[in-house]
TrEMBL record:
The gene is pepN. Residues 435-525 form the Peptidase M1 alanyl aminopeptidase Ig-like fold domain. Belongs to the peptidase M1 family. Gene3D superfamilies: 2.60.40.1840, 3.30.2010.30, Neutral Protease Domain 2, Peptidase M1, alanyl aminopeptidase, C-terminal domain, tricorn interacting facor f3 domain. It comes from Thioclava kandeliae. It is an enzyme of class 3 (hydrolase). This is Aminopeptidase N.
Amino acid sequence: GTIYLKDYTPYPFDLDQVHLTFRLAPSATRVLARLHLTPKGEGASLHLDGEELKLISLGIDGTALQPADYLLTETGLTVHAAALPEGAFTLETEVEIAPNANTALEGLYMSNGMYCTQCEAEGFRKITFYPDRPDVMARFHVRIEGDLPVLLSNGNAGASGEGWAEWDDPWPKPAYLFALVAGDLVATSGTFTTKSGLEVDLNIWVRPGDEDRCDFALESLKRSMVWDEEAYGREYDLSVFNLVAVDDFNMGAMENKGLNIFNSKLVLASPETATDTDYVRIEAVIGHEYFHNWTGDRITCRDWFQLCLKEGLTVFRDQSFTRDVRLGPVKRIEDAATLRTRQFREDQGPLAHPPRPNHYREINNFYTVTVYEKGAEIVGMLKRLAGDEAYRQALDLYFERHDGQACTIEDWLKVFEDVTGRDLTQFALWYTSAGTPHLKVTDAYADGRYTLTFRQSTPPTPGEPEKAPRHIPIAVGLLDLQGREVLSTQLLEMTEEEQSFSFDVAERPVPSILRDFSAPVVLQREQSPEEQAFLLAHDTDGFNRWEAGRSLAQRTLIAMTKGARPAQGYIDAIGNLLADDTLEPAFTAHCLALPGEDELAQALFAAGETPDPDAIHSARSALSRAIATAHEARLSALYDALEVKGPYSPDAEPAGKRGLRLACLSLLTKLDNGARAKALFDAADNMTESFGALSILIRAGLGDEASETFRARWQDNRLVMDKWFMVQVAACPPEDAVAKAEALSQDQAFDWKNPNRFRSLIGGLTANHAGFHAKDGSGYAFLADWLIKLDPMNPQTAARMSTSFETWRRYDSARQNLIREELTRISQTRGLSRDLSEMSQRLLG
Ligand code: ARG
Ligand code: ZN
């Protein structure tokens, strides 16, 4: 059934202490639990969640319960009130579970002979009978018995011996933060001393053979710990921090208290096997999970509707961390670009939902870009409105007031209201209502006054036909015709449906609006290509400078999908950009990157048109060729000049050069028949250049030989082979994509039960926009077949991959019919999981 936010009620018992004993065995693990419970009032029966558990014994205070005392169902165990003693009592259960049969990778499961857990959101109920809800927080004592060298759980290490170990977590936590790992593992270790002088042992645990790829993860962890002390005054609070890499994992990583568990692709890195982008992601996710220690673990969520309380804030924190320690200003461009392509896309389709939803069937379906990335944008807006100083005060108050609690979005907003004296009632709509506001701007100049007029409106989303005006922070600057700032960045606060703001200026200025992407809205403004080119050359705000080039590219590409020739103004603007050696290479690289095909389809649909995937693909390819032809000499000179010599370093500066150099290479490959790309592929001593060259060759239809070589070299490295599977299908010419995906799905190396491998191949196809949207519907059928096949094994990953269908209403009626048929076929599959059944129904609308 559907669960509603409005139905929240507190749990009628306090649970202060939990003792768990695990007797590990692959097909018959025993879990003994002792829960110390105190009723909050009188007469309540005791409900515990539990799924797929074999109940061995059940007792209270040492006495076994009789069958009449309780009710056991598919979803849990209820002990009748009459069977409960008065006052506090200890409930004892013993259950049996089969970790080696757990293919859903939720609860306790096995990956390459190693035991591990994933409990968020509701996996703990597959481990033992328990009040599996985030507002029930308890202290855990864990004993693990198992014939494996490394036995880990949350908190500080307790007693241990041959074949057993005990762990004590002094910090009360909800069950979703529980973790257990047991295996033959090796650690890369270090230490960290907190500002207050607590010595912390740091361990990165991996399978033997992987230990030479852990240094960067360890250094990233240390950088995260320093950063959180400086930027947020948050220190670590246990004497050990363990981080484990596993190969079979549904998501990126998990912030279990003192025992973070990671998808191995977000831990393992060496210059030969990881790209610059991988390094950045690894550091960001290690930061993210570490920052959860305060924003997630010490202060958690009252219920799962509040998920973005911890996720939005923690993403905002990890984005700030990456900007501060690595990427600088281009980080904002990347985050804004991701938000627009992925979150705006979600808002535009049938899956649109508020960052804080008010109902769901399966919570795992709400770990979305809206909850995470839009949630982070909302925190960013709060910071902008409050100012840096008040933001820090509000956060200090949040930690002080709510430490040890399970909180709501209202609690969070209240600290900002208390610190700033603002009324955030209207602002709260960002959390409670779905959709992307559109902001129409017009301007006027008369008698030394320049006036900007904004009109906001938000297109309807499922279940929300009417939208109230939002509180939108709009950062604006004004430039004169020489490109000098006549008004430095000001924050305008829009609260009405329509609102004007005036400025005294001597001549008509050029406005730079929504600087730094100050709010997640679509800006709509009639702007000449000349003005866009002017801003691309002169805007003093980095984001808007990039944005001007982006809009110029988009406008050119859209015209080209209708038969226009590449606009000379755009080609010239790119020439100026390439000639400007004052720019950071990373910034120039972002400016050279054309809007993606899916993004163009999104823009066309938003403009009321029907995107044609093949026309979009051809336009993009033709524009690249035109740029390359016009600027061949300059690109070639840049390509030579940007070569990074010496040993590989993942630092931002060399990475920025490699990024721009590969962008040049991609263009030059339009003209040189792959000569440079082949040479780079052969010479490269790092994965960034090797994989970069391979991708470029495949995109140009010249990749067969390099693909073979690459595969032969890396066939024993799972993570590198994931990249290989992905790029074969994502980058190949669209007309080959489905056939290629079908062939690779028969390859003996295609281990579809591994989520990374599944996502590489199936996600590779959906990333090939024109390939996936092949006219004959073969791409749709391929995806649907695989979702139906994966669902009984791993519903979470199947449901997540189904979001590739969310854009279906954009396309022509023939494609819509084909997709509707596939979605209907999925939804009518017998025995479909709750996850995929909810998704297919929402997708159908
Ligand atoms: N809390 C984790 C993170 O973002 C994600 C866990 C998501 N798990 C899930 N089954 N939906 O850091
Ligand atoms: Zn998170």
